[in-house]
Amino acid sequence: MKRFQVVGIGNAMVDVLAPADEAFLAAHGIGKAVMQLIDMPRAVHLYGAIGPAREISGGSAANTIAGMAHLGGRTAYVGKVKDDQLGLIFAHDLRAQGAVYETPMAPADSEQETGRCIILVTPDGERSMNTYLGWSEFLTPDDIDAAQMAQAEWIYLEGYRFDGPASHEAFARAIRACKQAAGRVSLTLSDPFCVERHRAAFRRMIRDDVDLLFANRAELLSMYQTVDLAAALQAASAEVAIVVCTESDKGAHVLADGKHWHVPAIPTKVVDATGAGDLFAGAFLWGLTTGRDLEIAGRMGCIAASEVIGHVGARPESDLRALFARHQVL
What is the pLDDT of residues 129-159, one digit of tens each? Predict the structure, then answer.
């Protein structure tokens, strides 16, 4: 048995969550329900403009790994932070969930800081993310421990991390080490704008290396440049063994071996949509790596997503295993 069920690689940052109305978004030129990259001056400006906020460890793939660890999965994470207050918070919170986190911290006197994502939550529960990558942007192949990748049943790659000068090479090193040890590769597309920026690189990776693709409807349509979800699902399933596409309150689609399952969503009042896809992926991967069939893994994903959208923040606050038992999927 390998040491890790899943090793995640992606951004390492702290989420700053604050309520905002549509007028605030318009006044500050913030695109609704998407992720926008910002620099440090913009991060400082927005932080000063928002009202009371909560600071919670985040990062998309880190949330996925935290969700798996919460379920008792054997997990590790790779993502770059600085030896500063937010970096120490990030490391503590991830390790407290039970995940292994050993990525060396950047020196305390370095110019960049730990990344943070200012997340503005509108009354409809949608989240608009303004991301200062900080040290996350500078993940390099040197940060990838090939031995750790070889000890993973799966690696989980975060599409957001394609925004970085050496991140593609870091992913390539992780993929080689994992595949050479008979491991498998999963990828989340993360955001339609991210897909637009890196479509060619994503397509090469999907065709050549990816065994499991996670996306939401908008991301998959962007990847395959169509407005027809059925066509996008078909195109993806021609390239990847397992395709998982979420559709918010319409549930999720799971495709593999010529089969297509539609998994219904769990009706939930949306408080904060942050982390819905992240926790879906964490629960799905936990189900997959503990021997559940793909449809059950999809149901676990929908249950976990419903839990996280019912409160502020992207990490689970309820016992996910208890929720699985209540929905009779354990």
Answer: 999 999 999 999 999 999 999 999 999 999 9
Q: What angle do CA 48, 54, 57 make, to 5 degrees?
A: 110
DSSP 34-62: SEEE--HHHHHHHHHHS-S-EEEEE-HHH
Output b/e per residue, 223-241; b: 16+ Cβ within 10 A: bbeeeebeebbebbbeebe
- State if pTM tops 0.85: yes
Helices 167-180 and 192-208: crossing angle in degrees, nearest 10, is: 30
Neighbours of 326 (CB within 10 A): 11
CATH domain 4-10+60-85+98-105+137-326 topology: UDP-N-acetylmuramoyl-L-alanine:D-glutamate ligase (3.40.1190)
- Cβ neighbours of residue 145 closer than 8 Å, sequence gap 6 or more: 78, 102
Name the band, by pLDDT with cuts 50, 70 and 90, for residue 280.
Answer: very high
Contact indicator for 136, 13 with CB cutoff of 8 Å? yes
Residue type, 183: G
